[in-house]
Amino acid sequence: MKFAVLAFPGSNCEMDLYNAIKDIIKEDVELVSYKNDSLAGFDAVLIPGGFSYGDYLRSGAIARFSPIIPALQKFAKSGKPVLGICNGFQILTEAGLLPGSLQKNVSAKFICKDETLVVNNDHSIFSSEYQKGQLITLPIAHGDGNYYADQETLKDLVANDQIVFKYTNNPNGSVDNIAGIVNKQGNVLGMMPHPERAVEDILGSSDGKGVFQSIVKHIKSRGVIYE
Amino acid sequence: MALVKVYVNYKKSILNPEAEAVHKALQRLGYENVEDVKLGKYFELTVADGKSKADLDAEINEICDKLLANYNMENYHYEIEETEAAQ
């Protein structure tokens, strides 16, 4: 199976993702420029962290109009897995592929440290390798990670079991301690913490591996999806 | 030509930590009568003539909804000023 890692001007975690997939998960992976207009041949798309377009205007607001985005929307609509991490999460909300938005951290500071998350949904495409209630440690590194959704949207997220990861010690002010959500269909995940930076013990934690292993397991059990 | 002044700010329900930091700084400086601070974005769009007022309104609203503001957390309003081409 083959992963695409999108790269926008200002992305800075694309090689971390690329190496995590290639060296640790041991699957095919290719970098895909924001200028491309096709995702044909890929089984899953990963959108990396960073500061696309310098976070000008709002995080993800300009990347969201890149040539690759219509192909991404089509890919997501077909039911194939899409994972946006950090700036990737921000791009997914701006592109309308995930509800809500990411605001400035309540402290108004950039926060870069390890956080403990609790797995809130262990049957999503992205979290089936974990147990519900399991505690995992992943690094966060963001200034705009404060997830906001209005009350009605939040109710939907809870009712549809869309909240996949929660912070145990909310670092940024996110509603309901949300660290990661999936869309209603369950094939698009956005999360602020960085699983790709926690894939081997030498990095301090290998707790992030499960996210990618879950995707691989899903794709291998489901077979080819035609767009 | 027309100059369109677009003001984007956070909805009331949204915390704005940057505005709060500015407010606290003003209080520290002794401006205790400043009761609230809003901190948003301001855009000036210079647009060519040729569109009716209604079409221009529709276009500016589209620009704001699509790009300049995020309706999830922000509101916007705008003013249109007729300007001389020389300016």
TrEMBL record, chain A:
Pathway(s) of this molecule: Purine metabolism; IMP biosynthesis via de novo pathway; 5-amino-1-(5-phospho-D-ribosyl)imidazole from N(2)-formyl-N(1)-(5-phospho-D-ribosyl)glycinamide: step 1/2
InterPro entries named in the record: Class_I_gatase-like (IPR029062), PRibForGlyAmidine_synth_PurQ (IPR010075)
Localization per record: Cytoplasm
Enzyme Commission (EC) number: 6.3.5.3, 3.5.1.2
GO MF, one example: glutaminase activity
Keyword Hydrolase: yes
Gene Ontology cellular-component annotations: cytoplasm
Annotated Pfam families: GATase_5
Annotated catalytic residues: 86, 194, 196
Catalytic activity: L-glutamine + H2O = L-glutamate + NH4(+); N(2)-formyl-N(1)-(5-phospho-beta-D-ribosyl)glycinamide + L-glutamine + ATP + H2O = 2-formamido-N(1)-(5-O-phospho-beta-D-ribosyl)acetamidine + L-glutamate + ADP + phosphate + H(+)
Keywords of this entry: ATP-binding, Cytoplasm, Glutamine amidotransferase, Hydrolase, Ligase, Nucleotide-binding, Purine biosynthesis
CDD domains: GATase1_FGAR_AT
Biological processes annotated in GO: 'de novo' IMP biosynthetic process
Quaternary state and interactors: Part of the FGAM synthase complex composed of 1 PurL, 1 PurQ and 2 PurS subunits.
Function according to Swiss-Prot or TrEMBL: Part of the phosphoribosylformylglycinamidine synthase complex involved in the purines biosynthetic pathway. Catalyzes the ATP-dependent conversion of formylglycinamide ribonucleotide (FGAR) and glutamine to yield formylglycinamidine ribonucleotide (FGAM) and glutamate. The FGAM synthase complex is composed of three subunits. PurQ produces an ammonia molecule by converting glutamine to glutamate. PurL transfers the ammonia molecule to FGAR to form FGAM in an ATP-dependent manner.
UniProt name for this protein: Phosphoribosylformylglycinamidine synthase subunit PurQ
TrEMBL record, chain B:
One GO term describing the cellular component: cytoplasm
Record's subcellular location: Cytoplasm
InterPro entries hit by this protein: PurS, PurS-like_sf
GO BP terms in the entry: 'de novo' IMP biosynthetic process
EC code(s) of this entry: 6.3.5.3
The keyword Acetylation belongs to this UniProt entry's keyword annotation: no
UniProt GO MF annotations: ATP binding; phosphoribosylformylglycinamidine synthase activity
Superkingdom field: Bacteria
Keywords, alphabetical: ATP-binding, Cytoplasm, Ligase, Nucleotide-binding, Purine biosynthesis
EC class of the enzyme, as a word: ligase
Primary residence: cytoplasm
Pathway(s) served: Purine metabolism; IMP biosynthesis via de novo pathway; 5-amino-1-(5-phospho-D-ribosyl)imidazole from N(2)-formyl-N(1)-(5-phospho-D-ribosyl)glycinamide: step 1/2
Biological role: Part of the phosphoribosylformylglycinamidine synthase complex involved in the purines biosynthetic pathway. Catalyzes the ATP-dependent conversion of formylglycinamide ribonucleotide (FGAR) and glutamine to yield formylglycinamidine ribonucleotide (FGAM) and glutamate. The FGAM synthase complex is composed of three subunits. PurQ produces an ammonia molecule by converting glutamine to glutamate. PurL transfers the ammonia molecule to FGAR to form FGAM in an ATP-dependent manner.
Family (UniProt): Belongs to the PurS family.
Subunit structure as annotated in this protein's UniProt entry: Part of the FGAM synthase complex composed of 1 PurL, 1 PurQ and 2 PurS subunits.
HAMAP family: PurS
Protein name in the entry: Phosphoribosylformylglycinamidine synthase subunit PurS
Biological source species: Lentilactobacillus rapi
